[in-house]
Write a structure and sequence with these properties.
The structure is a homodimer. Chain A is of the alpha/beta class. The first copy, chain A, contains 7 helices and 9 strands. The first copy, chain A, has one domain: Alpha/Beta hydrolase fold, catalytic domain (Rossmann fold, 3-Layer(aba) Sandwich), CATH 3.40.50.1820. In chain A, strands 1-2-3-5-4-6-7-8-9 form a 9-stranded mixed sheet, sandwiched between helices. Chain A is globular.
C-alpha cells in the first residue's frame, strides 16, 4: 500500500489516496487519531468509478469519520481507469440490449454480470483490509457499507474480520448469491428503496429472507435508487455504532 | 369524558383512567404540562383488553411521555369488560377451528373478524380524540401508534387530525383495507416482525406497497410478534419526533 496524496479537508478530515498494487483507493480519517479507530469499508455501485462517485463517497466518508470511524474505498474491477475484460464488455452490451428492448434481465445475464465481479472484488477487499489494519491509526472492528450487495454478501461469508454490514438492495442478485446468503451470520442492516427501477424488489426481499444472520433489519423507504432519506442513513449509522463500538 | 382515577407514578408520569360513555380509557401525561402537548394514541391488539395489556401499554406510555407527548389508550370493542357480539364470538370460533385444523385463514374469516371491529373502533377513537383535544394540557398534533393495522389504516383515511402513524404489521388484513390504504397520505412508519407466525408476511408487504403516502418506511426485523427490538421502537420514536414536533 502506497500513499500517493494527502489532503486535509476543511473539517479536519484527512483524505489520503493510495494504491494497492494496481488498485487505487482512498482513506479518510480524523486529522488526529489518539487511539486506533474502528473501520468502515465504503462499497460503491459497479461501473462508475471512484472519481465519478467521489462527491457521494466523500459525503458518506465525512459522516462516517464524524461518527468516530476511519473510512476507506477502493476502485472496483473494471471501473474507473481499471481495465475492463472482454467478457464484461459483452455482458454489458447484452444487458443494454435487453433493457432497451424492454425485456426482463435473464438469470444468465445477471450471473455473467455479477459473479465475475464478486470473484475478483472480494479478494481485493480482503487485501485492502490487510493493508488498512496494518496502519497504526486503524484497529478495528470492521464494518462494510453499501455498494454491490452481492460483493457484500460474499465478503460477509468469507471474511471473519467484518463484524457488521449495512447493505444496499439496489443491484441484480444472482441465484448463487441467494444460496451463499444463508451462510451469513453477522448483524445486517439492509436499506431498500421501494421504487428502485434498477432493482428487482422481490429478489431483494428473498435475499433479506435468505440471510442466516440472527440479527437483521430491513429499512425500506419510498423512492428511487438514489433517494435514500437522511433518516435511513442515520439509522444505518446507529446500527454501526451499536455493533462496532 | 369522566376521569375515574388519578395516580402519580414514581417517574412523575400522571396516569388518569377515564370513561367515555361506556368505553374505558387511560391518559398518561407529565405531572406538569406548562404548554399543551402533542398526543400519541396507543393502539392495542384485539381481544386482550386494557387490563391484560397494561404492563406493555404502560412501558410504551412512559417512553412516549418521556419523549414529550401525552399518550392515551381506549378499550377496543369486545375487549376487556366490553360486551362481545354474537357475530364476533362465531367468527372467533371459526378462526380457532381453522387454526387448530392447520387450515389457512380464509378471506371470509378475516373480513368477518376485522371489518366490524374497524367499523366500530374508528368512530370511538374519533370521539376519544374530540374529548382529549378539548383538555387544556393537550394541543396536538396527533399521532397514532400500533394496534390493529386495519383500524389504523381506516383512521388515517377518515381522520384529518392524525398527522403521522406508526403501524405494526401483525394482524390479518382484509382485502377491502388494502384498497382503503391507497387513500392514506400521511407519513407512515411500519414495523414488521419477519417471522411473525400470526401474520401473513406477503399481505403485510402488499399493504405497505398499497399505502398512498409519499413518505413511508418499512422497518422489518427478524423475530416473532412480540420481539420488536429496542432499536426499532426507538426509530419509531424518532419518526414521531420528526413529524409531530
Amino acid at each position: 500500500m502506497h500513499f500517493t496524496s494527502e489532503k486535509r479537508l476543511d473539517d479536519s478530515v484527512l483524505e489520503r489516496e493510495f494504491t494497492l498494487g494496481e488498485i487505487p483507493g482512498i482513506l479518510w480519517t480524523p486529522a488526529s487519531t489518539p487511539a486506533p479507530l474502528p473501520l468502515i469499508l465504503l462499497g460503491q455501485p459497479g461501473g462508475f468509478g471512484l472519481r465519478q462517485m467521489y462527491p457521494r463517497l466523500l459525503a458518506r466518508a465525512r459522516y462516517t469519520v464524524a461518527e468516530g470511524f476511519a473510512a476507506a474505498a477502493i476502485e472496483l474491477p473494471g471501473s474507473g481507469e481499471r481495465p475492463r475484460s472482454a467478457a464484461a464488455d459483452r455482458v454489458g452490451a447484452d444487458l443494454r440490449r435487453a433493457l432497451a428492448a424492454g425485456e426482463s434481465v435473464t438469470d444468465d445475464i445477471i450471473d455473467r454480470l455479477i459473479l465475475p465481479l464478486v470473484d475478483q472484488a472480494v479478494p481485493e477487499w480482503q487485501a485492502a483490509l490487510d493493508a488498512l489494519l496494518a496502519l497504526p491509526e486503524i484497529g478495528g472492528p470492521v464494518g462494510y457499507s453499501g455498494g454491490v450487495i452481492s460483493i457484500a454478501t460474499r465478503l460477509a461469508v468469507v471474511e471473519p474480520r467484518i463484524s457488521a454490514a449495512v447493505l444496499f438492495a439496489g443491484s441484480f442478485v444472482p441465484r448463487a448469491i441467494l444460496e451463499e446468503a444463508r451462510q451469513v451470520t453477522i448483524p445486517l442492516y439492509v436499506l431498500l428503496q421501494w421504487d428502485d427501477d434498477g432493482n428487482d424488489r422481490q429478489r431483494s426481499l428473498d435475499l433479506f429472507d435468505a440471510f442466516g444472520s440472527k440479527e437483521k433489519t430491513l429499512n425500506a423507504n419510498l423512492g428511487g435508487h438514489t433517494g435514500v432519506p437522511q433518516h435511513a442513513g442515520e439509522a444505518a449509522g446507529r446500527f454501526f455504532a451499536r455493533h462496532l463500538k
